[in-house]
Amino acid sequence: MTVRDLIAVSTGNMWRMKFRAMLTMTGVLIAIAAFVSMISFGAGNQQYIEDQFNKLGLFSTLQVYPKEREKENSNEPDTVVFPPLDKAALERFTAIPGVNLVYPYDAFSVKVQYGDSLVDSKGQALPTAATRTKLFSVLEAGTGFESDSSKQAIISSELMKELGFDTARSAIGKRIVVSVRVSTIDSGLAHILVDKGETLLDRLKKIHFDSLFYSKYRGKVIRAEANEVARRFVNGFLNARKTVSDTLTICGVREHVRAGRLRIEPVIIPFETAALFSTSGLGESPTEIFSALTSGKLFSTPEDAGEKTFSRVTIDFDPKVPYTAIRDSVEKLGFRTFSFAAEFEEIQRAFLYFDLALGAIGLIALITASLGIVNTMVMSVNERKREIGVLKSLGADESEIRWLFLVEAGVIGVLGTSAGIAAGWGITRIVSAIAQHYMEQEGIPPIDLFALPLWLISIAMAVGVGVSLLAGFYPAARAARVDPVAALRNE
Amino acid sequence: MYLRSINLCRHYKRGTYIVKALDDVSAEAHRGEFLSIVGSSGSGKTTLLNLLAGLDTPTSGVVEFNGASLTGMSRRERSAYRAHKVGMVFQSFNLISHYTALQNVETALLFNDTSPKQRKMLAASMLEQLGLADRLTHRPADLSGGEQQRVALARAIVKKPEILFADEPTGNLDFENTSQIISLLKSLNSDGLTIVLVTHNLEMANTHSHRIIKMRWGKISEEDDMHSHEGTKQ
Fold first, then answer.
1. What domain range is A164 assigned to?
2. Which CATH class is domain B30-55+75-225?
3. Helical ranges in A240-384 per DSSP H
4. Contact A281, A140 (CB under 8 A)
5. Which of B52, B55, B109 to mutate to test the interface with A (most CBs of A within 10 A)?
6. Per the structure, how many domains does chain A have?
7. Domain locations along chain B
8. Partner A contacted by B133 (CB < 8 A)
9. What values do phi and psi take at A152, rounded to 5?
10. What is the pTM of this model?
11. Which of A269, A296, A316 is the C-terminal boundary of a domain?
């Protein structure tokens, strides 16, 4: 008996019992539709994240941070010194094979003015080459910088709206004033000498020098004067700031991005242009002051810029090079790293568990449907015992009878699963359309929450047909065991 | 010897009892012979036929066809024996009710390595030869008893078997249809087909057979050579 004969005989029998076969197939259809629509949700979300990562080129970037001593559970001796994330480190990263570009994250607080709008925001210096990477090159309107010293800025779409522009296109070419308030060490030092009309000499006069022999008095005086010196310095440092301004032309508007480790500031300024803000003094952010204090650079002059350290550096590398190779090379140099590719692997793992959980629910429905197949097939075997006897008397062997029923179960599986995949996809389209309508109403950019990748179709087909065949196995074996003598006996 | 059974036994266990449907039966059929097995109900004639046709397996003893032991064959080999060498006709026709006459006859060629086109052609031709040219698309329920048995006969001989086993083929037929079927069997036999007929009609067996085996209580009670074996191949 050929495969064609098996299919013809099986489908012919199903056609004869079409209502029953259709009901059984509907069970498979519902189960597979549930299976597909549920896993499609996980797949859609995974696909969205992957697309976003790809769009921003995150799979080929690596974030580098200076290593810090762990407070607890550290086995490293106190004498271990971690390398600073400075210009020299950047040069070492550039020398790693496969690395295309290395640039630091250099952020500062800014005020942005356009017409009557004045917005407090954050700025970031970026080399022109970096604006050509995927992370910065996808713009809603405009282009990247002309050069590292051009008086240009790329702003986020959110800032664009705050400045009063309606569309990204209308903002291109407009001039904005970017200003930074900086504190200088000089003003801090000057306030130690004179603060609120009181000189340092006036304070010294109040000390009873003859009482300094008494340790209690001596300690009290030292503590009081140390506190006063620190207060005067900070007071002068923070309150006697100057404003550094520059007029820049908006050359590009980019989508606002702020998610987890991916931090791109609303104002991006060419590297050399931004130096005006960062080398004029310390910004007003307390973290900058604290960073300068802890790194021992508080009293460094702008000329010491070569020794400047960064809190984070981004490495853009060739997508053909595995991220692990770049990561290992950087970590060998004594730095911490963060890779979106590694994070995506984690996300994928989480989605795998998510999909497995959803798949298990779908599988329960499928197992229930498979009981329907078993029932239909067993009934069919019982009804066709005489026919099986006749086929055996005509020369059919047990395996041919078994295949006859397995093919029938397989056909139920193939048709039910195919219809189930189509129905599942239809359900996701309806739910997605409703969700997108809701997102639009809420002002959220509409995204497709569902996806039907080829692997999901293949898995659904394999699971649907596999479970149907398994369900058909027992009835098929039962049919093969039918005794022809008993089946053909005169009733 | 063409087809023979040696000390054939077929016992069935029924609770604590053992039913000896066939007990130590040794018989033979010659090539081209018209052999009838007669006996009353429960005498074991159908059991013997099923064993000779390879449809059942004996409790003990041997069935030999052309020197090869059927009992020593695998299930697949026995199926091939039924598919290629044997044709069977039953009292209750055993046609597949949802198939047309043509499809029923075609089914016999499903296990015979015959192409679908060839199957259709051979089946139609066989039905035409048996006078059923206008009944090809009829289902069994739309045919008379005689027509149904002729379809069954067409199904049994379309694959050109060497032996035809007929189990009470006229048991459900009237006199006219019985005569028609018997003359068809006689005609097939004269064309060289070996026929083993099971019947309880001794008169019919006497009239048409070369040899008769009479059975009683699962044993051969008598063996009669009715005619000289002229024209049969030993």
1. 102-316
2. alpha beta
3. 271-278, 286-294, 323-332, 340-383
4. no
5. B55
6. 2
7. 30-55+75-225
8. no
9. -130, 165
10. 0.69
11. A316
